[in-house]
Amino acid sequence: MTPQPPAFELYGLCKRFGTKQAVDHVSLTVPSGSFYGLVGPNGAGKTTSLTMAVGLLRPDSGGARVFGADVWSDPLRAKSMIGVLPDGMAMPERLTGRELLTYLAQLRGLGPEQVGERVDDLLTGLGLDEAENTLIIEYSAGMRKKIGLAGALVHAPRLLVLDEPFEAVDPISATVIKGILRSFTEGGGSVIISSHVMALVEQICDHVGVIARGRVLASGTTAEVRGGHAGLEEAFVDLVGAPEPVKGFAWLA
Ligand SMILES: Nc1ncnc2c1ncn2[C@@H]1O[C@H](COP(=O)(O)OP(=O)(O)OP(=O)(O)O)[C@@H](O)[C@H]1O
């Protein structure tokens, strides 16, 4: 029997902006059926790596495969299998939430019945039904995250790539989103999220990659990356380095 390829493989990804090497040979493997957390400090290269890996930003070198399909040389096959929640991506602000989801579902080639059923389910499930006729421009940051997540789910992808899905989301909605993602992985789906929140990653992810200054410092199961530390946060600080104590704010006291 041929072994199943990983859900997502990032291989040798590099990106330089001017003199800044934002991503430096990033390679990660997201096993099929896993819930993977990509963590790292601000500016570590998480968004740049994920944006290249889903085919939205061309890497200087390296690439990514989705269930064996190369994102850059076989984009139609690769992209049909992924749902993406990009960070800070522009949205069609003059569409309502329902119009946006309907449009995305139609772009993915779904028929009218499927479109209606899935758009209804997603709007209700994510608590956006009352705002379904509100323009996106009027959505709060958390509502934008939720409609973005709904758009990533609408074609029932095999892999979800979610950049900071819990940022700006209230605790009730976060619980709903966690539940949706858990049932997605229980049904065989694979997820990669980026996050700064170690407690959340430790709670929901079975695999973790730690990235800093554009490089992968550790990757593996959450238990492997935690190692002998009390928690993931301690392992993270140990890997990335504790910050210097803050000095020079005497005027603030
Ligand atoms: N379009 C761009 N032009 C120039 N520099 C960029 C660009 N995008 C990212 N960078 C730089 O690349 C580095 C990595 O940024 P990136 O957004 O990937 O980090 P991140 O880990 O997602 O950070 P955060 O957790 O703060 O969102 C940073 O130093 C950032 O300033």
TrEMBL record:
Spell out the SMART domains in the cross-references: AAA
A GO molecular function annotation here is: ATP binding
Domain named ABC transporter is located at: 8-238
Q: Which InterPro entries does the annotation name?
A: AAA+_ATPase (IPR003593), ABC_transporter-like_ATP-bd (IPR003439), ABC_transporter-like_CS (IPR017871), P-loop_NTPase (IPR027417)
Q: Which Pfam families match?
A: ABC_tran (PF00005)
Gene3D superfamilies, per database record: P-loop containing nucleotide triphosphate hydrolases
Q: What keywords would UniProt list here?
A: ATP-binding, Nucleotide-binding, Transport
Record has NADP as a keyword: no
Q: At the top level of its lineage, which domain of life is listed?
A: Bacteria
Entry's family note: Belongs to the ABC transporter superfamily.
Name recorded for this polypeptide: ABC transporter ATP-binding protein
Highest classification ranks of the organism: Bacteria, Bacillati, Actinomycetota, Actinomycetes, Streptosporangiales
